[in-house]
């Protein structure tokens, strides 16, 4: 049983082969955090870890003593104000205005398996033996509210899933003003904080800084997890590298407003937290009602950042993504957006599809502009019926023609939005999120539908189902192109307006769930103006996400590298697009565009009809190459080797599960001359296996053992070590490693 409870010491030990997590019921009946890290052996008690001392300017819980202060203690789910002045994990405002609470231990259960969270995305197990769950019940008798702290430890992952729920069993109504998913008090502050931040077109760039006294935090208050911040943070030791050292990561399985915060107190204790953003949030906890927080994942490694990322990759690929497409190779797609934008005819689309088929592409995706009066961005959103002037035989007809060519057919939707110039808005102007007597701001001429209301979600569901029932649709790109402003719902009273952002997300999840239940074989790709909602919440419904609207290969090095810290490559939509690049005009060879996009859910986003014969041949080769190695590109173990945030040469690699094959992506951004001889150490291979190394153009580099490649390294020296007249700027290559019989 990987969760034990010791009656004498009142300690819980959650463990598997890799990690341990220790909790203790403290003298005041609240829960203390004793340890999280590498697996440690059982021990009768850890009382020596309940650290208390008389300290000036500290307040104490028990009368006539100076030893028990919550301000001194590491806790599981702390409240503010009863001797702990740090930021709490939750706040409950009571009818008399007080926010002081005192939740005391009542009971606990330990069971095999893991329960689903109703209405929320979460990790899951298929067999009870895969995980063990601890649920601790605490109660505040003054406000008559129960708190349930839930912890699931996975047998085979160095990770713990956590969430919390509250139940009001009294007569009074309370207001939750904060309800985070995870709190972890760590005994020191010698950590670097890694966050993945950016903007549209440059999402999830790595930023690193050492923790300092006080607060550092990232958040989103935009109604989506956002391009700007990602609900994923790593704390690592300063000495930790990709290949060695301690690190821990927290990821929120949620797609809306969030907060991730580290507070370092005056005694160098680090309080790490993640959950729903308390800013602008409140929730009426009415009598007999339950509030469930989203889930957070906590992972640990003592073997470096690559190992930590691989834990998230494996868990998300196998036990967050689900259904038909889980762990399935992703179809190679052609998307018409950058090829045509709104300016398409059926003939044009069929011509693109025809070329795509010839090149070996498998899925044709029709992007924005096929519905209502949507010939430009100011009209049509909300009207999910086909524009017959553009597509005379409708979606059904087009899907059939595409299928007859031997391609799968995919379609774009933006279900959460409406244009004022639409039948939906004309009929239901009250369906949008706007504040009474205030101006409603637009984004791209569109308004956000009030998905906190069931009738709004029902309306969009019915419209989508009609299209999906008629035409045979294999794939949906679910877009979301603006954030929420003037947040207010006409359907809720004044004291529930703080719930709308979260209720909105619950509505989005509900629509996803209903569509997946009815169409379990459709592959969903989530998108939000590129990577504006790239999070573990979305991955539960849509197992791939459009990583960024920025398709420039050089920009993508940073974006995909940053994204890889928290998310697997099978989830990252990565397309080869035209050169000069649409977003920043950079001219790059087709070769590097393919070499970067291979490490993801691969596809094309350009007008294939405009390619030269030589380019057509190259694309055909890329597609064939991707098909040959797709399983490893998308599901191999991913290693970051050289960072685009640190130098001119970037590299990453994937290794097959059996370690018999590996592919190394090697990219030189700017050309150089008369340079050093270069080697690249390759981790992750089997030391004693013999690997044949070649380049995808057939160049044979010889045979080397895994041990040689890990310790001496792969020689990557190219013409630039001399008088270079061969390599160019934006130079990419893929090394192929295949096991040879010894
Ligand atoms: C934004 C997306 O990120 C693009 O890929 C494209 O689908 C457009 N929206 C369509 O409006």
UniProtKB/TrEMBL annotation:
Residue sites binding substrate per the record: 200, 367-368, 444, 477-481, 527, 549
Record-annotated Glycosyl hydrolase family 36 C-terminal domain positions: 650-737
Its EC number(s): 3.2.1.22
Annotated family: Belongs to the glycosyl hydrolase.
Pfam hit, one: Glyco_hydro_36N
Listed GO biological process terms: carbohydrate catabolic process
Plastid as UniProt keyword: no
InterPro entries: Aldolase_TIM, Alpga-gal_N_sf, Alpha-glycosidase_related, GH, Glyco_hydro_36, Glyco_hydro_36_C, Glyco_hydro_36_N, Glyco_hydro_b
Domain Glycosyl hydrolase family 36 N-terminal, chain residue ranges per copy: 30-286
Descriptive protein name: Alpha-galactosidase
The organism's place on the tree of life at top rank: Bacteria
């Amino acid at each position: 049983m990987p969760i034990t409870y010791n009656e004498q010491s009142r300690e819980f030990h959650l463990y598997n082969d890799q990690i341990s997590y220790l909790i203790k019921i403290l003298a005041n009946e609240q829960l203390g955090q004793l340890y999280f890290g590498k697996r440690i052996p059982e021990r009768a008690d850890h009382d020596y870890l309940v650290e208390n001392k008389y300290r000036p300017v500290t307040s104490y819980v028990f009368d006539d003593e100076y030893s028990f202060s919550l301000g001194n203690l590491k806790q599981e789910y702390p409240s503010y104000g009863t001797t702990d002045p740090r930021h709490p994990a939750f706040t409950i405002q009571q009818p008399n205005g007080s926010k002081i609470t005192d939740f005391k231990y009542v009971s606990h259960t330990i069971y095999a398996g893991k329960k689903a969270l109703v209405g929320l995305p979460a990790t899951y197990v298929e067999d009870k033996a895969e995980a063990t769950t601890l649920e601790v019940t605490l109660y505040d008798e003054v406000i008559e509210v129960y708190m349930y702290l839930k912890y699931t430890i996975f047998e085979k992952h160095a990770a713990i899933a956590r969430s919390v729920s509250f139940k009001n069993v009294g007569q009074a109504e309370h207001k939750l003003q904060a309800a985070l998913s995870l709190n972890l008090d760590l005994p020191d502050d010698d950590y670097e904080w890694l966050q993945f931040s950016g903007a549209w077109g440059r999402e999830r760039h790595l930023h690193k800084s050492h923790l300092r006294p006080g607060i550092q935090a990232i958040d989103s208050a935009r109604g989506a997890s956002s391009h700007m911040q990602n609900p994923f943070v790593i704390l690592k030791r300063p000495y930790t590298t990709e290949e060695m050292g301690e690190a821990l990561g927290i990821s929120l399985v949620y797609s809306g407003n969030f907060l991730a915060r580290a507070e370092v107190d005056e005694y160098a204790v680090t309080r790490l937290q993640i959950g729903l953003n308390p800013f602008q949030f409140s929730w009426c906890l009415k009598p007999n009602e339950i509030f469930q927080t989203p889930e957070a994942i906590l992972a640990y490694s003592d073997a470096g950042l690559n190992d930590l990322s691989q834990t998230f990759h494996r868990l998300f690929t196998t036990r967050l993504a689900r259904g038909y497409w889980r762990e399935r190779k992703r179809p190679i797609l052609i998307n018409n957006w950058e090829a045509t934008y709104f300016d398409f005819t059926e003939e044009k689309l069929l011509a693109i599809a025809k070329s795509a088929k010839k090149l070996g592409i498998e899925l044709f995706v029709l992007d924005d502009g096929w519905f209502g009066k949507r010939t430009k961005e100011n009209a049509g959103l909300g009207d999910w019926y086909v524009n017959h002037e553009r597509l005379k035989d409708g979606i059904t007809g087009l899907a059939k023609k595409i299928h007859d060519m031997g391609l799968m057919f995919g379609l774009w939707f933006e279900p959460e939005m409406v244009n004022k110039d639409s039948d939906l808005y004309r009929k239901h102007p009250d369906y949008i999120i706007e504040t009474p007597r205030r101006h409603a701001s637009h984004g791209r001429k569109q308004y956000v539908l009030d998905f906190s209301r069931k009738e709004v979600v029902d309306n969009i569901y019915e419209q989508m189902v009609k299209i999906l029932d008629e035409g045979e649709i294999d794939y949906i790109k679910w877009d979301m192109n603006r954030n929420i402003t003037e947040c207010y719902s006409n359907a809720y009273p004044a004291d529930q307006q703080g719930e709308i952002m979260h209720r909105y997300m619950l509505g989005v999840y509900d629509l996803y769930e209903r569509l997946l239940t009815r169409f379990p074989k459709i592959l969903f790709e989530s998108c939000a103006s590129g990577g504006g909602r790239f999070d573990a919440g979305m991955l539960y419904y849509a197992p791939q996400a459009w990583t960024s609207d920025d398709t420039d290969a050089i920009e993508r090095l940073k974006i995909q590298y940053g994204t890889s810290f928290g998310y697997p490559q099978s989830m990252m939509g990565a397309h080869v697009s035209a050169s000069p690049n649409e977003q920043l005009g950079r001219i790059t060879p087709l070769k590097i565009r393919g070499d970067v996009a291979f490490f993801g859910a691969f596809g094309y986003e350009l007008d294939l009809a405009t390619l030269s014969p030589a380019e057509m041949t190259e694309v055909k080769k890329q597609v064939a190459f991707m098909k040959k190695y797709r399983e490893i590109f998308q599901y191999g173990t991913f290693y970051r080797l050289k960072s685009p945030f640190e130098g001119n040469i970037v590299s990453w690699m994937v290794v097959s599960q059996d370690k018999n094959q590996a592919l190394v992506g090697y990219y030189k951004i700017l050309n150089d001359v008369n340079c050093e001889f270069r080697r690249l150490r390759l981790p992750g291979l089997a030391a004693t296996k013999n690997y044949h190394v070649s380049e995808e153009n057939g160049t044979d580099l010889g045979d080397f053992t895994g041990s040689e490649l890990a310790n001496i390294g792969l020689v990557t020296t190219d013409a630039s070590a001399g008088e270079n007249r061969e390599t160019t700027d934006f130079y990419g290559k893929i090394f192929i490693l295949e096991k040879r019989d010894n």
